[in-house]
Write a structure and sequence with these properties.
CATH superfamily: P-loop containing nucleotide triphosphate hydrolases
Largest sheet: 7 strands, mixed
Number of domains: 1
Number of helices: 9
Oligomer: single chain
Helix content: 25-40%
Strand order of the largest sheet: 1-7-8-9-4-10-11
CATH architecture: 3-Layer(aba) Sandwich
Number of strands: 11
CATH class: Alpha Beta
């Protein structure tokens, strides 16, 4: 297994990662094929997707562990003298489905990127299954889907799927890829270049790549942005499938259709944690839409 980050393709291949932030791309010469190669031509005939299969056999069910799936301990972040995150601490248990809520600029993306090992914190630490974030063990357990995915210019969507699947030792990856692409409405676009897709199709492609490999923890940043109704429903089913099979899911989002499915909400405002709890005794709609989720008017941030 390895980490699949969806903000830079094929970065940090020593840890078997996928990340969609092209500033982190490395080991490009390790790519086993290029568009137009014999390999690409051979793959033009893909297996048909199996209805409702969603490649559930792809994932090894995580076993109970001594450590939390995700542990954030006194994490803060500043850029020079400008604070982005005040010290934040929380733990997420294995199998939990958590919504990370906050307005633009609240610190959600900063926190998720720190958790994924893509950004250093100013103080504190993050661990994944007891391993320090960014370590090989943490990368092996983590799949990360970013909010602005990018792709290589010379690889088709199918080639992206093949590369990530092979890196992670996915058995019968062709059927898994076909099932995922079919589920997300991308099967007919498998041989197209995803870097030329619309925002919504890029997002679906990133989601497919995020689910092609095994993971214990899935971190996702605003995955519903740009998706049509069918895409949102397909993603909701994949997220539910992940937790049903023992994986842990943390999603930064304003999408109420997802927030209503979680048992826990973590809310940020101006870099501060203002709510961490269940959904039973809280107005979920108000929590997503109001500026002060916990109802605590604690002044402006300086």
């Amino acid at each position: 297994m390895g980490v699949l980050f969806l903000q830079t393709p094929f970065a940090l291949l020593s840890g078997f990662c996928w990340c969609s932030d092209l500033s982190l791309v490395g080991y490009a010469n390790a790519m086993p094929f290029a568009s137009g190669s014999a390999t690409h031509k051979k793959l033009l005939k893909h297996p048909k997707p199996k209805v409702n299969n969603m490649a559930r056999s792809r994932r090894n069910v995580p076993q109970p562990k001594e450590h939390s799936a995700l542990s954030v301990d006194n994490v803060s972040k500043s850029y020079g003298t400008a604070p982005a995150l005040d010290p934040i601490s929380f733990d997420v248990n294995t199998g939990d489905r958590v919504a990370l809520i906050g307005h633009n600029g609240s610190g959600k993306t900063t926190l998720i990127r720190i958790a994924a090992g893509l950004l250093d914190s100013s103080t504190g630490s993050v661990s994944i299954g007891g391993a320090p974030s960014g370590s090989l063990s943490a990368r092996a357990a983590l799949s990360f889907i970013a909010d602005q995915p990018t792709f290589y210019d010379d690889l088709s969507l199918w080639e992206h799927m093949e590369y990530v699947a092979r890196l992670h030792g996915v058995v019968e990856w062709e059927q898994t890829a076909a099932d995922l692409l079919g589920h997300l409405g991308l099967y007919d676009r498998a041989d197209d270049m995803p870097n030329r897709f619309s925002r919504g199709l890029k997002q679906k492609s990133a989601i497919a790549l995020g689910f092609i490999r095994p993971f214990d923890l899935l971190l996702v940043d605003e995955p519903f942005v740009g998706l049509d109704a069918a895409g949102k429903e397909a993603l909701l089913e994949l997220l539910a499938d992940a937790t049903a099979h023992g994986s842990t899911v943390v999603v930064a989002t304003h999408e109420l259709s997802f927030v209503h499915t979680v048992s826990r909400i973590i809310a940020l405002r101006d870099g501060r944690l203002v709510y961490d709890g269940g959904t039973d005794d809280i107005n979920v709609d108000g929590l997503v839409r109001t500026e002060d989720p916990a109802g605590e008017h604690d002044g402006e941030r300086h």
